[in-house]
Amino acid sequence: MRRSTDVVCLMPVRTVTTETERFHDGRSTGGRMRKTRSEYALILAGAAAPFVGVGLGRFAYNPLFPEMVSAGWLLPAGGGYVGAFNLAGYLSGVMMGRSVAARAGVPFTINAAMGLMALSFLASAVNLGLAWLCGARFLAGFSGGVLMVLAGPVVQSCVSAGRRGIAGGIVISGVGTGIIFGAAIMPLLLGFGIVGAWAGLALITLAIWGLTCHLWPAVSISAGSGMAVTARNARLMVVAYGLAGAGMVPHMVYLSDLFIRGRGYSFGLASTAWLLFGVGAILGSLLGGKAVDRLGGYRATLMWLAVQIAGIALLLIWGKQAALAAGFLGGFGGIGLTGVVLGYAHELNPAISGIIWKAATAAFAICQAVGSFALAFLFDISQSHFPVVIAGLLLSAAAFGLLVIGPRNAPGKS
């Protein structure tokens, strides 16, 4: 029977059907080792997809933004609109990725998304004005959405049952790893100027694409939307996750600009804060699933939302220590919440956990895109980061409150 992900692996080396179990039944040490190496290679390719698609494709722009403003490529308000177009592209990729893969095949779709990501970086290196950059960042977002929506289910459908949990955790941690890598390498890339920084990201993407392009298996994937979520506690979780996504816009779009231009901190401190954002994202993602198992999805979601709220609130406080703590807590709570919600979806209803997860992912992307446009307009009219941070804080608090007043019969609340 097909699992809730509606992804079935067809490659003999990775499938778990009876026929291939006979093929890889452990009769030889060499066969077991080959299978293990093949699975680990696919897991690493899976982690590379969000590493490029989200870690670099979305978040590497954050430390670049103030430099582009200083060089006259953008006006301060324009950066928010560029970020909003990137999020709108991400939503489009999330919504269309499975349908494209169902028609064109998973290997072609993922490899095409990698190629388009590299192209988007090269396009961003050309200074042709705000509209051009918005289009390039939309393309990056679209590619990232496709990579994010496909990588996890494909990897989990093709690895042994005993490795699916760790495989999912490693794939999700690719986001935080990409954030850390981008923060660490961006000062070096900016030594070659803004054009050199964008071109460097393109070269990195091409290198990763070259290393992973042959690893993706031919899988059967359904294009079914399956967006209906009827249980009230599931609907509340989906809406709360969407609000939390909108609440993270101050971190995801304005963090470096707030510290460099808004507070006058050094580029080094802003990069360190962004690096800690990535560290927090990795730890929050890896610990999120364990927290659901130990505490229940409801309590774990409230805890991670509380950490997110604390991280946003610290953005209102002056001081370098507060800036660094805000970066770490924002990554831990805001990005790590993804791992928690993934586990919570399974806890609410294992039979339709894939449907709940897709609805939650779409809600997150929609609310974050709308929130990004709205906060860009707010920043444009106020020319201040303060109302943007307050809006993010209120949205995150609304997500927390929505779950607190929700039905008490949800799993994990007892």
Looking at this protein, list some descriptive labels:
transmembrane helix, about 425 residues, MFS_4, two-stranded antiparallel sheet, globular, mainly alpha, Growth Hormone, Chain: A, 16 helices, disordered C terminus
Report what the structure shows.
- The chain is mainly α and about 425 residues long.
- The chain has helices spanning about 20-25, 30-55, 60-70, 75-105, 105-125, 130-160, 165-190, 195-210, 230-245, 250-260, 265-295, 295-315, 320-335, 335-350, 355-380, 385-405; strands at about 5-10, 220.
- It folds into two domains: about 1-225, Up-down Bundle (Growth Hormone, Chain: A); about 225-405, Up-down Bundle (Growth Hormone, Chain: A).
Roughly how many Å is the radius of gyration? 21 Å
Weakly predicted, low-confidence segments: 1-5, 12-26, 409-414
From the coordinates shown, what is the CATH architecture of the largest domain? Answer: Up-down Bundle
Helical stretch tally: 16
Per DSSP, what share of the residues sits in E-state strands of 2 or more residues? under 5%
CATH class annotation of the largest domain: Mainly Alpha
CATH topology of the largest domain: Growth Hormone, Chain: A
Q: What does the largest sheet look like?
A: 2 strands, antiparallel
Largest sheet strand order: 1-2
Report the CATH superfamily of the largest domain.
Answer: MFS general substrate transporter like domains
Number of strands: 2
